[in-house]
Amino acid sequence: MPRGVKLCPSCQCSNGPRAFVCKSCNQPFAFKAKSKEQKNTKIIQNVNWKELQPGDRIKVAGGPYYFSKGDFIPMGYKGRFQVYSLDDKGIIATGLDKHTGFAHIYMGKDYQSKETGVWKVRHKLVKLKTKVTNE
User: Fold this and answer.
1) Per-residue model confidence as pLDDT tens for the chain (135 residues)
2) Alpha-carbon distance 110 to 104, whole Å?
3) How many folded domains does the chain comprise?
4) N or C: which end of the chain has fewer CB within 10 A?
């Protein structure tokens, strides 16, 4: 089968890769359903982290790292968190996915620690907000 073609499961007719129904028998193709969270969550970018409130949900990436002899070792958090409180250098949060317990999400100024050689770089974050539905 050539690339960019999918077969209908009922009549074996070739269709385009983005087809929703078969062009010969009108059989609908099965698609992976979105999770309930993907349907009900919107992302807010360019958030001031100092304005976050306890209970807000955020998605985090990046952060501190260690670089030595060509090896890049990420040391920051990645994933979804719920804000617990704020301090002067970052966010104290609890993990919602793979991280459990508390985490300190660094949001201070960028610098390299003289003792450990770790680059303290602020995390990238977006705020997750529940979509408002008119039902």
Assistant:
1) 678 888 888 898 999 888 888 888 888 888 776 676 667 777 777 889 999 999 999 999 999 999 888 889 999 899 999 999 999 999 999 998 877 789 999 999 999 999 988 999 999 999 988 766 554
2) 16
3) 2
4) C
Give the structural domain span for 11.
1-31
14 found inside a domain = yes
73 lies in the same domain as 19: no
Prediction pTM value: 0.66
**Would you say 126 and 58 are in contact if contact means Cβ atoms under 8 Å apart?**
yes
Q: How far apart are CA 4 and CA 129, in angstroms?
A: 36
